[in-house]
Amino acid sequence: MTGRVVYFISHPDVVVSADVPVTQWPLSATGMGRMRDALAQPWVRTLSALYSSTETKAVDAVRILAAHRGLPWTEIPALGEIDRAATGFLPPPEFERVADAFFARPESSVRGWERAVDAQRRIADAVAAIVRDDASPGAIGIVSHGAVGALLYCALTGAPIDRRFDQPHRGGGCYLAFPVSSPGTCAWWRAVDEGAE
């Protein structure tokens, strides 16, 4: 990939708890380990700016990158995951059914969740603003969430909203990469710790 690149990184594995708001779930030990393994990836060395959502799991992940690169980061609420406060925690089988419906009916609010079309507009606008305003010389790292990452991928490539564009690793911890000069050529998801021993 030539020219300046944006890396949209989904946080890896989290501690799921029915007793803690979803936005406050932290990375699990596995998630922290996967982010530390990601530091060996060549693209991490190119990062000159970091941004994240305000959710605990994303902040936990960006902190690891920031400490390694000696960079500050900026938290942006619009980079948050789809708003599913209406249901809060759902057992995994039920969550998967609702998530399927979220992607299948993008113009509708499923169980009170944020509509997919609204979440897509929000994440695409937030990423576009970062790219427009960031003045650092190297690659931009944006630590966010998988579902909005799938919506961003669809927006960048012109694909219809569909769950088949969701990150393949169900534990999260994947990234999309696209050149600032041609975002429509966004590369498919790869694991942040791909190739780690």
Q: Helix/strand-derived class?
A: alpha/beta
Unreliable residue runs: none
Q: What strand line-up does the widest sheet have?
A: 3-2-4-1-5-6
Figure out the total of helices.
5
**Rg (C-alpha, Å):** 16 Å
Shape: globular
- N-to-C SSE string, H for helix and E for strand: EHEHEHHEHEE
**Terminal CA distance:** 25 Å
The main sheet comes to:
6 strands, mixed
Count of strand segments: 6
Which percent band covers the strand fraction?
A: 15-25%
User: What percent of the residues sit in helical stretches (DSSP H or I)?
Assistant: 25-40%
Average pLDDT score: 96
Ordered list of secondary-structure elements with their pairings:
Elements (H helix, E strand, L loop, with lengths): L4 E6 L18 H10 L8 E6 L3 H14 L4 E2 L16 H13 L11 H18 L5 E6 L1 H12 L16 E6 L7 E5 L6
Parallel strand pairs: 1-4, 2-3, 2-4
Antiparallel strand pairs: 1-5, 5-6
Helix pairs in contact: 1-2, 4-5
Structure description:
It is a single chain. By secondary structure, this protein is of the alpha/beta class. The chain has helices at residues 29-38, 56-69, 92-104, 116-133, 146-157; strands at residues 5-10, 47-52, 74-75, 139-144, 174-179, 187-191. It has a six-stranded mixed beta sheet with strand order 3-2-4-1-5-6. The longest helix has 18 residues, at 116-133. It is globular and about 45 Å long. The model has no long low-confidence stretch (mean pLDDT 96).
